[in-house]
Amino acid sequence: MNEIKESLRNIEQTYKVFQQQQFTFIAALEHSRENAHDKIKPISSIGQVQTYTDHYCNNTTDRRILLMFLSICADLSRLCQRLEALHSGNATTNALLDRCKTLVSHSNDLSAVRAKYPHDVVNHLSCDEARNHYGGVVSLIPVVLDCMKEWVAHSEKLPRHMMQSERLEKLLDQDFVTHRKSPFACEAPAAEVCIAFPCKPHLSTGKNNGTKFSI
Predict the structure, then answer these.
(1) What pTM, to 2 d.p., does this model score?
(2) Is residue 89 located within the same domain as residue 170?
(3) Residue 32 in contact with residue 18, Cβ under 8 Å?
(4) Is the domain of 44 the same as that of 62?
(5) Number of other residues whose CB lies within 10 A of the CB of residue 191
(6) Do residues 191 and 127 both lie within one domain?
(7) Residues 49 and 136 both lie in one domain
(8) Domains contained in the chain, number
(9) Strand duo 200-203 + 211-214: pairing
């Protein structure tokens, strides 16, 4: 969980730099829409921004800020995958994760997404821009970040055994895979299992009189 928090903080720091350049971002989108003869439709998806960047952006400054937006979205998408792999969660965390995954999907319609207080990204747009063109695209990242932070907060309240059970299953899966490669490769995962779930040692009466561990 600490690694997840650290990744989230890093994305937030990058977003703060991006947020300071919102006017540059809006100008880049405006230029690309003009080049694409696409001034009527709002910016409605990450995929649309990707298309503008790939085919209708001919300015270095515009391209840099559009790529920064796409990079943050890609980082959020990868973090969603890590959240999903961390534990199975409950109804609340699963709903939050599903919302995050939907929002960062390239084809998802984000035109109706709006960041609420304390975020002020929409307030920095003119009324026409916010209502008809860019309100969704500038709201996307802060909304996803809030959703992920809420996921972390709820996950930390889950019973400890849920987190440990997920950890145990992953270790046992790793143990199985490595054991197929070498009969001696499973020692490290087995040791981690004993740390997560304290073992009770007892002496064996077997031929080698070795020590066995049981969970």
Answers:
(1) 0.74
(2) no
(3) no
(4) yes
(5) 12
(6) no
(7) yes
(8) 2
(9) antiparallel
Given its phi and psi angles, is residue 89 left (phi above 0), alpha (psi -120 to 50 degrees) or beta? left
Highest mean pLDDT among 70-74, 86-90, 92-96: 70-74
Q: Are both 110 and 210 inside the same structural domain?
A: no
The pLDDT tens digits for 80-89 are 999 988 877 8
Euclidean distance between CA atoms 92 and 83, whole angstroms: 13
Q: From residue 185, give the alpha-carbon distance in Å to each of 45, 104, 180, 182, 207.
A: 46, 38, 9, 5, 23
Q: Are residues 165 and 64 in the same domain?
A: no
Residue 109 and residue 147 in one domain: yes
Domain holding 94, by residue range, is: 2-158
Q: What are the tens digits of pLDDT across the range 151-197?
A: 999 988 887 656 544 544 454 445 434 444 444 444 444 444 444 44
pLDDT tens string 36-72: 998 888 899 999 999 999 999 999 999 999 999 999 9
Mean pLDDT of the chain: 81
Confidence (pLDDT) at 124:
86
Neighbours of 63 (CB within 10 A): 16
Picking from 38, 21, 33, the residue whose alpha carbon sits closest to that of residue 124 is 21
Q: Residue 84 corresponds to which amino acid?
A: E
Q: Helix, strand or coil for residue 213?
A: strand
Rounded Cα distance between 39 and 52, Å, is: 12
Domain match, 102 and 154 both = yes
- Retrieve residue 112's tokens: 């109706």
